[in-house]
Amino acid sequence: MKKLLYVFLLFALCVVGCLRKVDSRLVLADSLVENRPDSAYVILRSVNPDSLSGGENRALYSLLTSQAMYKCNVRAKNDSLINIAVDYYKSTDNRANYARSLLFKGAVLYEMGDKKEALRFYKQAESVADTSNYDFIGYVNLRIAEVYTNSHIQNREDAPKLRKALFNFKRSGNVKYQLFSLAGLSSIYRNIDMDSAYYYMDVMADLAKKVGDSIHFYQALSTKVRAYEFEDKNREAIAIGRPVSRFQEKTPLVENVNYDLCRAYAKIGNLDSSLYFFRKLPTENLSDRDRLLRLMAETEIALAQNDYKSAFYYNDHSSKLADTIIENARQVELFETEKRFDRQQLLLQNVSLKKEKTFAYFIAAVIAIILLLGWIYWLKRKAKLREQQLLIEQLQTVVSTSQNIINDKSQDAMMLQGILSQVIDNIRYFIDLSYRYNQQPGIFFNKFKERIKKTRLPDDFWKDFQYFVNSKYGNILSRLKKRCPDLSDDELHIVGLMCCGYSYIEIAICMGYTNPNYVSTKKLRISKKLGISEPLKGFIAHFVDNAESSTPEK
Fold first, then answer.
1. pTM, to two decimals
2. DSSP track, 335-400
């Protein structure tokens, strides 16, 4: 029976393990999606998502498919696919894939035209990502810069994002994306700072040439052509631009150099060459940016033809189009979206920090209370030890007093010998007890109290004791009672014991007080009732002496 149970458990574990295993096709696609997204996309298209088992496989499929489509320039119709990955990884501890899903959620939204939401998801992806993943941090900032650049926001936030991207790509050694970042910086600084623009163009060209990347090499040259044409260095622009134009006939570049060559040739009066490159310009599916560049080229051609009316017309339309592009960009409020996200993140960090500080203060307060209680306990223990030591010293010196009474052979003293022997036995027991529990005052005092309660002197003893004291000390107790009727029997007993020379420890033992210090309190009450200011011991001695001096000699 046990063997069958073990076989069943093993089978169940194998089934669970198979269900949790990541599909091998997805693993292969994941390894290709960054550098060979077209191959990854082919693999993913061969996978039937309905055949995938487990939420992890379905989430990874959604993430990889969205990433491959973006990199292969296949536009997603909506964000339903990437949402599967975002929702799944949000509730897991796989922060890397959660950050990736947020990144490509932003990319899908950007392609759908929702730049504001795209920027929000890009920022969220950056906040979730591992800060040591330099490639990912760089790529996120590259995408944020793309949003700013292509939205024509004039707050110059794209340049810092590209510099941050370049910095991270340099740390990771990713040359490919270093070139992308340098291309973006070259284009941005061309409108801001020409010296910086030429610097980034040269760095990009040198790096591309070093790694044999002809596309980025000619991209750097095309950026420089536009910079030369912008500064009216038309012949330099033409000299560099013609080989770039021939290259882009086979491989399209981001910057279409034919716009720049058309304007450069028109500016130097070479109308035929200007029209030659104008005819090479695209005419269909033009973006606002391409329409603006075409109007600018038409303006230069009209000026070269001395057709000032057409030139004014084209220039007016290009100015209005540029204003429209900028105005539409301003309405997007991307910069405010980013800063609002940053403020939210800062607020969350402040709340977290405040909670941490509150917790730290709480821990510090608890520690302080514990230390205070420990200190109080230590003081109390020290006081108890000191009290015990004092009690021990007193106990070690009091045996002789009771012994003297026992040795007294008078008839009155004989009545007390049995009882006082019990007192001496108690004292000796306490002395032995104090040495046994020398470092445990709590136990010592508990034993002390128990013994006191068990060995309390009987009431009959006190009648004989009063008779003995009155006989031996000039009827002192009766005289004190007559002088102060408020004195109680216990108080008279204490006075009698004091007359016999008992210490406060002996008095406490005889009276059955579990706290020896209570004797001092009783003495103060007696002094108050008698209305005396001098110490009670001295008063009793004088009172006894006066009684003896007033007694007539026989």
1. 0.53
2. HHHHHHHHHHHHHHHHHHHHHHHHHHHHHHHHHHHHHHHHHHHHHHHHHHHHHHHHHHHHHHHSHH
- CA 330/CA 322 separation, integer angstroms: 12
In DSSP notation, 33-73 reads TTT-HHHHHHHHHTS-GGG--SHHHHHHHHHHHHHHHHHTT
DSSP track, 181-199: HHHHHHHHHTTT-HHHHHH
120, 337 Cβ separation under 8 angstroms: yes
Rg for the chain (alpha carbons), in Å? 52
- What is the residue whose two structure tokens read 């993140």? 345
Amino acid at residue number 395: L
Amino acid at 541: A
Please report the pLDDT score of residue 509 as a whole number: 79
Per the model's pLDDT, the better-predicted residue between 7 and 486 turns out to be 486
d(CA 298, CA 311): 7
**Spatial contact of 546 and 525, defined as CB atoms under 8 Å apart:** no
Please tell me whether residue 212 adopts helix, strand or coil conformation: coil
Helix axis angle, 399-407 relative to 334-397, nearest 10°? Answer: 20
C-alpha distance from residue 84 to each of 104, 143, 369 (Å) = 12, 22, 51
Torsion sign over Cα 250, 252, 253, 255? positive
Q: What is the C-alpha to C-alpha distance for residues 157 and 518, in angstroms, rounded to an integer?
A: 84
Mean pLDDT of 26-41: 90
Kindly tell me if the per-residue pLDDT of 110 is higher than 70. yes
- 400 has pLDDT over 50: no
Residue-wise pLDDT tens digits, 364-398:
888 989 988 888 888 887 776 676 666 666 655 55
Alpha helices (H) in 173-280, listed in sequence order: 175-189, 194-211, 214-230, 234-248, 257-267, 271-279
323, 293 contact by CB (below 8 A): no
CA distance 149 to 169: 19
Alpha-helix residue ranges (DSSP H) falling in 21-54? 24-32, 37-45
- Reported as a pLDDT band with limits 50, 70 and 90, residue 347 is low
Rounded CA-CA distance 459/465 in Å is 10
Residue 95 CB: number of other CB atoms within 10 A? Answer: 13
